[in-house]
Design a protein that fits this description.
alpha+beta, elongated
């Protein structure tokens, strides 16, 4: 590899690592916040929460890598063009492959990395995540007996125990059950206990009432001396970890068991998951080619309506959105499985055509004008806010 190629590769790699780190941190944080209830509702330890948070990373990486790469390539090439480095390289008689080769090398590395994470690390992380969540639900008894706190047992089912007595009994039991549509059940009991009957875990409540709100709004109150609430379906959750297609290994998706519940219900979901895993790794290459087609030539961008980086990201986001949209429909429409592959391949082919013709890929005029106008309005508002703030300080 030539010195110039190593220079371009080094600069693009540095920006890629920085963009990947920050983008991954932002996306990962939003995903982690959605799982904070594992600690607040299930009473799990902080170590379990951080383990679940770490297991989210393999799921996020394949989505973030193409965008981090397109930002890195477009930013590097735009900066080199602004600093006249691309002009110097072109004037020195170097071919366009001098610029293209290191970018494609970085894109190939990103694609291999994305493929490995998507097909090996992510399924294992998802399986472990399922096991942790199931175990947290199965550890139900130790969670409910914590005094004075509401515990979410399942969607629509909450339990509170007022006190835990020395003899192992429970006092002040409250259960809210809204799992059945349009029916709300509220149980109050003075005392109770956990017992095991016929290999089932039961919450036996004594001396209480049941408030039942019917779909029409009528409320009925029923008193009881003793009432047994079945909790076995939740305490057995750890032994019944349900694996969905996204949780399965690639080898299993290629040859699923005929007795698999999800496979029997929707075989296309397995095909859709395979198509997703076999196409996501193509997007880093496609996005790198788009960045090269937009900002990889030695020309002035002063006449461009918007910055090449914005153009590159907008085009890349369009193709990625199209990929997500088609991927969401594959489970119901079989022939769309071919379109999933066609989208990154088509994006690459279009970008290669622009590169071969030595033309700059640009957004349609109407779209570019709209983005430029929006950016101008935002800048004007920011300037107005700054001017207003400065005027207030001056008056003070």
């Amino acid at each position: 590899m030539k010195v110039v190629e190593r220079y371009i590769l080094r600069r693009a790699s540095a920006v890629f690592i920085a963009a990947l780190t920050w983008t991954l941190a932002i996306v990962w944080t939003t995903q982690v916040l959605g799982r904070i209830d594992l600690v607040t509702d299930s009473g799990q330890s902080a170590f379990t929460f951080f383990e679940v948070a770490a297991l989210i990373l393999p799921t996020v990486i394949p989505i973030v890598v193409p965008f981090a790469l397109v930002i890195a390539v477009a930013q590097t090439l735009s900066t080199m063009n602004s600093d006249s480095e691309l002009v110097v390289i072109n004037a020195a008689g170097a071919s366009r492959m001098t610029v293209i080769r290191p970018i494609l090398l970085l894109a190939a590395f990103a694609s291999v990395f994305s493929f490995a994470v998507d097909n090996f690390a992510d399924p294992m992380a998802r399986q472990r995540n399922r096991e942790l969540i199931a175990t947290s639900r199965a550890d139900l008894l130790s969670l409910i007996i914590q005094e004075g706190t509401f515990r979410k047992v399942d969607n629509g089912l909450f339990v509170q125990v007022g006190e835990r007595r020395p003899n192992g009994g429970l006092g002040g039991i409250f259960v809210a059950d809204s799992r059945e549509k349009d029916v709300d059940l509220v149980y109050y009991a003075k005392d109770g206990s956990f017992i095991e009957r016929n290999d089932k875990q039961m919450l036996v409540m004594n001396d209480g009432v049941i408030h039942r709100k019917a779909p029409g709004g009528e409320v009925s109150v029923i008193s009881f001396d003793s009432y047994a609430f079945d909790l076995s379906e939740f305490t057995a959750a750890a032994n019944e970890v349900v694996m969905r297609p996204k949780d399965r290994s690639t080898s299993y998706l290629l040859n699923p068991q005929p007795t698999d519940m999800y496979y029997q219900r929707n075989p296309l979901s397995f095909t859709a998951e395979l198509n997703r895993r076999f196409t996501e790794w193509l997007y880093p290459i496609a996005f790198a080619l788009i960045a090269l087609a937009v900002a990889g030539d030695a020309r002035s961008h002063r006449e461009a309506r918007i910055h090449p980086l914005i153009t590159t990201i907008a085009i890349a986001m369009f193709f990625r959105w199209l990929g997500f949209f088609v991927d969401s429909k594959v489970e119901s429409v079989r022939w769309l499985g071919y379109v999933v592959y066609a989208i990154p391949v088509s994006a690459s082919a279009i970008a290669i055509w622009f590169i071969a013709k030595n033309k700059a890929m640009e957004l349609p005029v109407a779209a570019a004008d709209w983005i430029a106008g929006a950016a101008s309005r935002i800048n004007d508002r920011i300037a107005a806010l700054r001017y207003g703030t400065a005027s207030k300080h001056g008056a003070a």
